[in-house]
Write a structure and sequence with these properties.
Elements lengths: L6 E4 L9 H15 L4 E4 L13 H12 L25 H10 L3 E4 L3 H9 L15 H9 L5 E4 L6 E6 L3 E6 L7 E3 L7 H11 L4 E5 L6 H11 L5 E5 L2 E4 L5 E3 L9 H6 L4 H9 L14 H7 L10 E2 L2 H13 L3 H15 L7 H8 L9 H9 L20 H14 L6 H15 L3 H13 L8 H8 L1 H13 L3
Parallel strand pairs: 1-2, 8-9, 10-12
Antiparallel strand pairs: 3-4, 4-7, 5-6, 10-11
Helix pairs in contact: 9-11, 12-13, 12-14, 15-16, 15-17, 15-19, 16-17, 16-18, 17-18, 17-19, 18-19
Amino acid sequence: MNKQTVRTRFAPSPTGFMHIGNLRTALYEYLVAKSQGGDFVLRIEDTDRERYVEGAVEVIYKTLQTAGLVHDEGPDKPKEYGPYVQSQRLAMYKPYAEQLIKEGKAYRCFCTKERLDSLKEDTQGGGYDRHCRDLPQEEIDRLLAKGVPYVIRQKMPLEGKTTFTDTVFGEITVDNSELQDQILIKTDGYPTYNFANVIDDHTMNITHVVRGSEYLSSTPKYNLLYEAFGWEIPTYIHLPLIMGKDADGNIAKLSKRHGSTGFEDLVDEGYLPQAIINYVALLGWCPEDNQEIFTLDELVKVFKISGISKSPSIFDYDKLEWFNAEYIRRMSDEEFTKYAMPFYQQSMPDKNFDWSKITAILHQRVTKFNQIPEMTDFFYQLPEYDTEMFINKKSKTNLDNAPKMLQIATDKLTALDSWTKDTIHDCLINLAVELGVKNGTVMWPVRIAVAGKKVTPGGAVEILDILGREESLKRLAKGLEKFS
């Protein structure tokens, strides 16, 4: 394979649901690779067994599939760079750390947990004091012979500075005196997150590392490892934070107190996966023109790393809902019905309405699919309502004329030969003409009687048509009873 092929990796830990921040990282890694004709690799980092959640690996696969982020390589699509699950790569890490020991770039640290804890309590201490950094070889051999547990630490430079360039944040320099001798291999033989990351990225030929800006401070440590091995440093792309805003306008890192922060939770709330992906793409990246609606393929064509911003972005649920509404409006009625069906069945179980008629009155009104149950529950069961609802200033209805209109409308509708939307419409419109009143003066009482709600998708005609003759006349009769 050509070494210059752009290769990115999404390396989630299976610790639960897919947070929006993880999803954006995956999306940008996908876009960085695909916009340059490269490879998008999936690697599962499962060595933190304490935080491992059963079933979380399946969540990762399902999310990527639902979001349309198809990986080129991974545990399920192995190629020459595998294995792609970190726990299956454990044998490879320690030899790399031991190579650094031989070259004088790392050392075994035999300090006990008690000693390290006491250092933390020492207010003057700035972390580990490098106690084992220069132990005589005889002492090291003695401790090894006794079987004393040890970690392997990297020898950090004690003076000077480390500078690296991030594609988004530019050149960043840190004083080496601020860097502790980081642990590479723990006492149990497992690699630390930072060490495994560097080894995996190098051996998998990853060219571009995309991750959240919270990892900026760790990057000098990564680079010193690359330099210690004499390896080429990848291109770094650190992404701005995603923030949330609470009801009082306070801005903080996005968390569950702002709303749903997981991809699956948002889908369950009725947001379309493609609308979520479209919106998440714009959290920290700006296209060159003012276009906002993009398919994933369109994003691949226009995505440029230079469009990524340094500034934190705010996850705006209203804006996501706007995107969702745009996607819903662009659906065909058949597509809408397919997506809406679980929600139809939730609010109207055991019913067999003509769903296309319900879609016709909902399609342009719904902005999230989870609104459907509340908008349609009256079709399943007429709610309890008060006669005060028949009063409507705009329609010029009151408690005196509403029952009269209801009675005449009921009589006319009962006499209809066929029950279709057109015959119902003509019947009620002609009745208004005949009585010399506004259309609403006839329609409002009928709609209240059959729906028991002031706000409904569709008007009286559509509701009567969907409910059918028998149920409609039964509800009209119930409405009349309220006045007796």
